[in-house]
Amino acid sequence: MVRYEGEPIAGVVAEDEALARDALTAIAVELEATPAVGDIEAAVAPGAPLVHPDWRGYDVAFDYPRNGNVAAELNSDPDPEALANAFKQADLIVEAEYRAPRQYQAYIEPKSALASWESGRYIVHTASQFPFNVRDQVASFLGVRVSDVRVIGHHIGGGFGAKLDAGLEPYAALFARAVGAPVKIDNDRTEDLLTCGCRENAVVRMRTALSSDGRILARDVDCLMDNGAYSGEMPFMASLPMHVFGQVYRSGPTRIRCRLIYTNTAPTGAFRGVSGTYLYFALERNMDECALRLGIDRRQFRIKNLIGDGEATLVGQVLSDAGLLREGFDEIERMAPWSEVSRKDASPGKLVGVGIAATTWLTNPGAGSVTLKLNEDGTVGLVTAATDNGSGAVTMGVAQIAAAELGVKPNDVVIQMPDTDSAAYDAGSQGSRTTHVVGRATLAAAAEVRQKILAIAGDLLEAAEADLELADGAVRVKGAPSRSVTLSQVATEALRSGGPIAAAGSYATPLPAFNPSCATGLLFPTFPTPTYHVHLAVVEVDAATGQVKVVRYVVAQEVGKAINPDAVRGQIQGAVAQGLGYLLYEGLDIENSRYKQRTLETYRLPLAVDIPNVESVLMEHGDSAGPYGARGVAEPPIVPVAAAVGNAICDAIGKSINRIPIRPDDILEAIDVDGRLEPA
Fold this sequence. Notes:
The protein is α+β, with helices and mostly antiparallel strands. The chain folds into 3 domains: 106-195, Aldehyde Oxidoreductase, domain 4; 202-363 and 515-668, 2-Layer Sandwich (Aldehyde Oxidoreductase, domain 4); 368-507, Aldehyde Oxidoreductase, domain 4. The chain has 18 helices and 24 strands. The radius of gyration is 27 Å and the shape is globular.
């Protein structure tokens, strides 16, 4: 059964592209049409055709609620009576629906893979964010041991989550063994767009109970997420509303229902910020609507309901430093005073608005490892399966940590490309985990290498180890820098006396405590190593054309410790650019289960002229588990962007637009020809 456009049904292997295309034209496919569902709301309607009629017979890795076209479901209703009473006693109830489309990762290099069959093993070359995941998935696909598959990583032309899972690699490996020669498969752009696991489309419905003095008394949230035709990691994303709706603002009794829905469309998957982009859009748009209905200043309404140090989220996780959210609001106020940016001084024909949004996000856990070795020329070799997914987390952050610990220049840290044969396990470039987790493993490896270096250098210098220091590629006696030996000399001596100097370090983030009974279907139970963010946007809307210009964007972000401040600011700038694309331009529209946008020409990406300079303040409150206190920094800056800019646009036009993207036509629907505002 073919369940979506782009699903593989046949393969051709040829010596060149022309022969392959000729062979494809010789394949005749006969398909019998069956009823399809391409829309999540249609898929849960009574009598909807099932995407997987035999879903009951499927093996699943975890036991979680599912039924028919509901691929996974989360439910939390800890105190129904308290929830009902809160809504009954509320002075005001604000109810709204929020919609978001799919978003394509639009990396520069489409997916590709090269595989060979050598001496009874599959050798796969790929540009992957998560080589060990690809190894495991190829092995599962082919029904072999994971040790029968070797994955060699290469430089990634962007990934943003789409290159965490195997794509073309299993097919290349299968074909390579079948033909006895290396096989390479490349997607063209349309093939990549049609089959990529893009960000899911979703519908969020929310009711908020409020007191007249501006307190949130209770919330009721229902969320539908589009899974596409097959499940990968998406069942985990159904847990995200349990975190988003209770880790920034106090919400009182809260009921969460989230359903992940099968449709006859391409499977969805990870995209930077995963489901948080539209969930926070819904939360923060609702916060604005609540404040406006109450007649309370939007910033003050947020501050009144902010959680603080030691408060627990809906999953029962205690956030010991949640007060950093208030510090973020204060930093934004220092950089862009609310009373000033809210004055709305506009030129003729322009409407000015300001929006603010806050986010608590996680630093992904997962095991990481590093092996360090002192080379005979005094450089340091670094072996890890962690990848540089455009962030510089390995080549800058991890390398800087190793260099600082061993007294060498960062350029003298030689990094090997990921290889599942030579490196120990790493959980992939995802969720800002690399600097935090792999950096911590690097500290452990460096400590052992350092001890071995000092032991040998102490003998060479006839000095106690406690009197030695590492600096500038040498070991020297403290206070007497002329008494020194180079690291090259130490490495050479080690070959004669005890063997090469090397050590490995590993680390896995311990998960915070939580309440396992808080919900059914909770697969993603905690937010480890939380980070805190506040974004402010000022926009100018052209009342005649509906065009939006972001004239100012300000970010306050808790980073723990900025290992490389330039890299951190670069990640913030890039995340804001992606977030603006999501809110203002992008979106994969689905018609009859097929994407309408099929090329980058029709899929509108933001251009350099669309992106403002991003002002940022890096708050540094070190996390005790991180290397030098570092927390994750690269993923979360995208999460509040749609919320902050969406709020600013709605402030400018004086009406609510509760869907992503907000394009000029959407704005013009809210503004008539006389410039008067009508409902959106």
